[in-house]
Amino acid sequence: MPATIDPPSETGAPPPGPTGTAAWRARLVPFVKFGMVGTLGLGWDTASVYGLRPLIGLTGATIAAYFIAATFNWLLNRHWTFRHVAHADPVLVQWARFLLANALGFVLNRGMVFTLFMTMPICRTIPALALAAGSLAGLFANFNLSRRVVFRHRPDAPAGQGQPG
Questions:
Q1: Cα–Cα distance measured from residue 100 to residue 94, given in angstroms and rounded to the nearest whole number
Q2: pTM of the full predicted structure?
Q3: Which of 26, 48, 81, 105 could form a disulfide with 142 if both were Cys (CB 3.0 to 4.6 A apart)?
Q4: 10 Å Cβ neighbour count for 162?
């Protein structure tokens, strides 16, 4: 697919941001990284459910595990997927934004998980099946909201000028 060329602005300056193939790549790479982090999150989620289930039951373990996995996912996304971002918010504010922004993903994720628990007995026996389906259900919503609401640039920082930590 050839790169598209946007005409210069009235001032003669090039258009902001990448175009064509560069724009496609600029969106695909973070999405793939986000998906890889999500796959690790599925591991943390699953391990937490299996570890907490004997202590607090399947329902409690499933809810607690989401927050454990979401916290690990936020950390990895902050330091790897979106490391190029000059973060607009302090760390704890960003973590809270991540949890809030991903509330839609939480509803899609855990809605799928609990629906499968109720309708497919094998998912109650092997919760990892329902957890994997739930992760996929929330992936696209979580990525888009994370990119636009959580891991956003400081207004005074140029795009691509990340900050350490």
A1: 10
A2: 0.71
A3: 105
A4: 15
